[in-house]
Amino acid sequence: MKKILISTISAWNQNSGANTYSAMFSKFKKEAEIANIYFRADMPDSDVAKRYFHILENEVIKSIFHRDRITGKEVSNYTLNGEDTLRIQSEKNRYSRFSKRHNPFFMWGREVLWKLGRWNSKELNFFLNDIAPDIFFFPLSNYCYFNRVNEYIVKKCKPKMVVGFLGDDTFTYKQRSDLFYYINRFFIRKSVKRLVGQCDEVLAICPKMKQECDRFFHINSEVITKPIRDIAPKLYIRDLSKPIRLIYTGGLYLGRDESLITLAKAIQKINQEKQYMYLDIYTNTSLKNEILSALSIPGCCEVKGRIPQYQVFEEQEKSDILVLVESFSDKTARLSFSTKITDYLSSNRCILAIGPEDISSMEYLKNEDAAIICNSPQNIFPILKHLKDDVNLIKEYAEKGYRCGVRNHSSEEINKRLKNVLKLEEQS
Predict the structure, then answer these.
(1) Which residues contact 9 (CB under 8 A, 6 or more apart)?
(2) Number of domains into which the chain is organized
(3) How are strands ordered across the β-sheet holding 135-139?
(4) Nearest to 58 by CA among 104, 93, 12
(5) Range of the domain at 375
C-alpha cells in the first residue's frame, strides 16, 4: 500500500475548497494511506486522510521572537473547544479583512514573516519522517511561503513521485494590471515554475488551464476535476416551482456580488406585474451593508447566510435554477473551475451561468452545452424573460447539465484518471 502525503492551504472540511481533495481521493482507501499537511486556521472533518498535521501561522509569526515556539502539531478531526474556536475565528477574520482588499502590503508582509519564522520544526520533521510518503501531492499556489514549504518537503522526503495541481492561475500576468500585482506576480511565477520543474506530473483543473499551462511550462498535463457526487443513475425531473426558484450557493468575492446584484435587479424587473421568479443566496461571506441591502429585495431576492453542506445539496434539489456567477471586471478566476460546478451538474437542475466569455468555466459549459450562458450583464434580463416564457428550456438544461456531469465528471472516471497518473492501478 502506497503512502500519499497531500499538502493544502485549508483544512479538509466540507466548507472549504479543500473538500475537492476529499472528493478526489475518497475512493483510494484500498490503494493508499493518505496524510495531510495544512496551514489555514481550521480543523479537518474528513476521514479520507488518516493523519493530519497543522502548521499554525500565528505560532510561526511568534517564533520570530521566541524560537522555542511549537509551530506545528499533529491533529485529529474533532469537535473544537472554546479556545480553539476563538483562535481560529480570530485568524480567519484577520485573513478575510486583508485578503478581500487585495492588500499587497499584507501579502508581502506575510511572506516576510514566513521567511523569518521557524516553520520547519522538529515536530514537522518527525511527522515527515514517520509518514515517509511514496507520493507527494500539492496545489501550485499563489503563496510563495506555501510553495517554499512544499519544496522543503520534496527535498527532505524524496518521494518517488511528485505531483502538482493547478487549480487557479498562478503563472500569467492576465488577471490584473496594477504595479503591485506585477511585482507580486513576478515572484509567484518564479516560485511556481521552480516547483513545476520538480514535478513528475502536473494536473490541470480544466481544459483552458491545460492549454495555457502546457504552453507556458512546456509540459503535458492531465485534466482532473472534482468528481460529481455519487447519485442514482437516473434523471430527476419535477414540476417547476411557482414562482421559479433560483439559488446561489458559495462565496461572494472577486466581484461575484456585483453580478448577483445585476441578476437581482433583473428579477425585480421581471416581477413588476407578478412574482415569476425568486433568488435565494446562501453564502458564508461577510457582506458590507450596501451589498446586503442591494441583494435584499422583497419578493425578489434574499440573502440566507451560511448552511451546512448537506443542506446546500438539499436546497439545490428544491430549486429550479442553479446560479453560477463570475465577475465581469475581476479576472482572478479566468483559469479557475469552481468546485460548485460539478456539484451543480450532479443536481439535475438547470444551470444559469453568468460571466465573461473568456472565463474557463463559461467556455467549458458553453462548449458542453451544459448551461444557459449569459456573457453580458445587459443580457441577464432578456434571458430571464425567455426562461419565464419558455419553462421547458429549464427542464431541457437540467437534463443537459446532468448528462455532462455523468459523461465527464463521474467519480469512476475521475478516480480512474487519477489512479493512472499516480500509478496505483497495480494496487487495486
Answers:
(1) 18, 38, 39, 40, 139, 141, 143, 146
(2) 2
(3) 72-75, 51-55, 32-38, 2-8, 135-139, 161-166, 201-204, 222-223
(4) 93
(5) 244-409
CATH number of the domain encompassing residue 285: 3.40.50.2000
Which residue is associated with the grid cell 514537522? 124
Residues 306 and 256 in one domain: yes
Instruction: Tell me which residue has cell 443580457.
Output: 379
Q: For the CA atoms of 44, 45, 46, 49, what is the dihedral angle to 10 degrees?
A: 40
3-state secondary structure of 64: coil
How many Cα atoms sit within 13 Å of 253 on the Cβ side? Answer: 14
**What does the alpha-carbon distance between residue 33 and residue 133 come to, in Å, rounded to a whole number?**
9
Quick one: 157 and 264 in the same domain? no
pTM over 0.85: yes
pLDDT tens for 249-271 read 988 888 899 999 999 999 999 99
Let me know if residue 154 belongs to a domain.
yes
Q: Is residue 74 part of a domain?
A: yes
Q: Write the pLDDT tens digit of every residue in 9-66.
A: 988 876 665 578 888 998 888 889 999 999 988 888 888 999 999 999 889 999 999 9
